């Protein structure tokens, strides 16, 4: 089996213990990763702490290092993409796209102009708002998009002047570890540390006394635990958590166009995207045609190993997630739902489940009310648009959403009524480095991407320069 190393203080550390990593297309282990010990965790955080004073002091060096890191990752995009497919399961083209997104985020933040904000400038005072780095940051990432989401955190955190300890999911640690190896000589020792390990490593990292900021992407339940751990040390947190994104089709929508967009954005990465479409509301007049169009697309996919040419959809990432999706669909069918397409595992090795379209579902069924995080799309009819919007909002989630219509202006007006961090009109899942991304309600705290994402990794520092000496408070 292949072996990978942690990067701690600029050194490659194989670790004193390891754990197996499975290929989800085969359902079998193919590599091992280091299982970080308490002492190795302490070394990683200590290295980040020691590197912080010098790293924070030179913005020009930070920008240059981010650009160099982007170039190094870009040189290895094919190697990294293939490794990501093996551990995560998504088709190779998607995996390479995820690696390229890391390059894009690094270059975006290297080029972002960060200036002092002047709050007052008159004869009485000049007041400036500075954005100061916080200190060592813990970046904890999930298994569904481990590289892309890591660099949503790493790039702005480093540009802001922080140092980072990255902890990927134990289901998908390898590509992140490999990137750490590749960048070990790009950043000064201790600036970027990458560790891996089984639970409770994430909890230990979050609770470490020297960590001053935690950026976490994962489930809402896990996010609550991270927030509780952060509260003890008054650490800053950014939490990007679960979603149950509704797609609302309006009565003037083109069915084929909407079906193509909704199916694509619900089934990419076989639904394992926090902001994928997870339920669809359709006017009753268009309902039959929309279901038929979605079923047609579900039956046309090619499911298989992501490394095989022509594969459009890969496996779920792990056995537990396969069982969850299977259970949600079974529960819905037992409660009266109809399987219009899919609805079962695919015979053979690996964690494969057929893209599934469900009808005759109700809002109270778990497959509608909860985040499926898999290839199961419930389609619900509506008779009144106000009722559809109310149903779309009747959830503790509030991450993404979309409206599908032939009148984009009408869609944009209705978008204001959706309780979500992002509402797309006639598209879904458009994520770019300059656009803020975050959730409302139980879908998270804080924001990622753009200058707003960089500000999440800073403390505000007001500098008030009094220009009228001798006044009462001078």
Short structural summary:
The protein has 474 residues and is of the alpha/beta class. The chain is 39% helix and 22% strand. It has helices spanning 38-56, 59-75, 77-88, 92-111, 146-159, 174-182, 201-207, 220-232, 255-267, 284-300, 319-334, 366-369, 385-393, 408-415, 450-455, and strands at residues 2-3, 6-8, 11-13, 18-23, 28-34, 117-121, 125-133, 136-140, 163-167, 192-194, 213-217, 236-240, 245-249, 277-283, 338-341, 356-359, 376-382, 400-404, 422-425, 444-445, 458-466.
Walk me through this protein's architecture:
The chain has 474 residues and is α/β, with parallel strands linked by helices. The protein folds into 2 domains: 2-241 and 439-462, Aldehyde Dehydrogenase, Chain A, domain 1 (3-Layer(aba) Sandwich); 245-425, Aldehyde Dehydrogenase, Chain A, domain 2, CATH 3.40.309.10. It has helices spanning 38-56, 59-75, 77-88, 92-111, 146-159, 174-182, 201-207, 220-232, 255-267, 284-300, 319-334, 366-369, 385-393, 408-415, 450-455; strands at 2-3, 6-8, 11-13, 18-23, 28-34, 117-121, 125-133, 136-140, 163-167, 192-194, 213-217, 236-240, 245-249, 277-283, 338-341, 356-359, 376-382, 400-404, 422-425, 444-445, 458-466. The strands form 5 sheets. A 7-stranded mixed sheet has the order 15-16-17-14-13-18-19, sandwiched between helices. Helix 3 crosses helix 4, helix 3 (77-88) packs antiparallel against helix 6 (174-182) and helix 4 packs parallel to helix 5 (146-159). It is globular, with a radius of gyration of 23 Å. It starts with a strand and ends in an 8-residue tail after the last strand.
């Amino acid at each position: 089996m292949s072996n990978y190393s942690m990067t701690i203080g600029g050194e490659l550390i194989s670790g004193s213990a390891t754990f197996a990593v499975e290929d989800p297309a085969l359902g079998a282990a193919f590599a091992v990763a280091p299982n970080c010990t308490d002492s190795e965790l302490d070394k990683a955080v200590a290295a980040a702490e020691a590197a912080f004073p010098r790293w924070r002091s030179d913005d020009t060096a930070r920008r240059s290092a981010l650009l160099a890191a982007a170039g190094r990752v870009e040189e290895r995009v094919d190697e990294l993409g293939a490794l990501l497919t093996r551990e995560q399961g998504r088709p190779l083209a998607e995996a390479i796209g995820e690696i390229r997104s890391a390059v894009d985020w690094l270059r975006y933040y290297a080029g972002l102009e960060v200036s002092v904000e002047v709050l007052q400038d008159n004869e009485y005072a000049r007041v400036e708002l500075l954005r100061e780095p916080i200190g060592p940051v813990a970046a904890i990432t999930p298994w569904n998009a481990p590289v892309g989401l890591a660099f949503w955190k790493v790039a702005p955190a480093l540009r802001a002047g922080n140092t980072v300890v990255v902890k990927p999911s134990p289901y998908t640690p390898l590509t992140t570890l490999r990137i750490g190896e590749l960048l070990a000589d790009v950043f000064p020792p201790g600036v970027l540390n990458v560790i891996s390990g089984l639970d409770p490593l994430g909890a230990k990292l979050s609770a470490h006394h020297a960590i001053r900021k935690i950026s976490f992407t994962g489930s809402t339940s896990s996010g609550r635990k991270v927030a509780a751990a952060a509260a003890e040390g008054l650490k800053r947190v950014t939490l990007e958590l679960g979603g149950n994104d509704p797609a609302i089709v309006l009565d003037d929508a083109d069915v084929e166009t909407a079906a193509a967009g909704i199916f694509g954005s619900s089934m990419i990465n076989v639904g394992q995207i926090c902001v994928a479409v997870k339920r669809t509301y359709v006017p009753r007049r268009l309902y039959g045609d929309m279901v038929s169009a979605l079923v047609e697309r579900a039956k046309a996919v090619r499911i298989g190993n992501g490394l095989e040419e022509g594969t459009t959809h890969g496996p779920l990432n792990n056995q537990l997630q396969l069982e969850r999706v299977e259970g949600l669909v079974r529960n819905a069918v037992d409660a009266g739902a109809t399987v219009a397409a899919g609805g079962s595992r695919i015979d053979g090795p690996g964690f494969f489940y057929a893209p599934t379209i469900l009808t005759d579902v109700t809002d109270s069924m778990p497959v509608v009310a909860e985040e499926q995080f898999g290839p199961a799309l419930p389609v619900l009819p509506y008779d009144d648009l106000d009722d559809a919007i109310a149903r779309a909002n009747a959830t503790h989630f509030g991450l993404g959403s979309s409206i599908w219509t032939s009148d984009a202006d009408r869609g944009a007006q209705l978008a204001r009524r959706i309780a979500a961090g992002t509402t797309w009109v006639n598209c879904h899942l458009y994520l770019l480095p300059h656009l803020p991304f975050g959730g409302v309600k139980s879908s998270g705290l804080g924001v990622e991407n753009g200058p707003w994402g960089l500000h999440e990794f800073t403390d505000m520092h007001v500098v008030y320069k009094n220009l009228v000496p001798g006044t009462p408070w001078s």
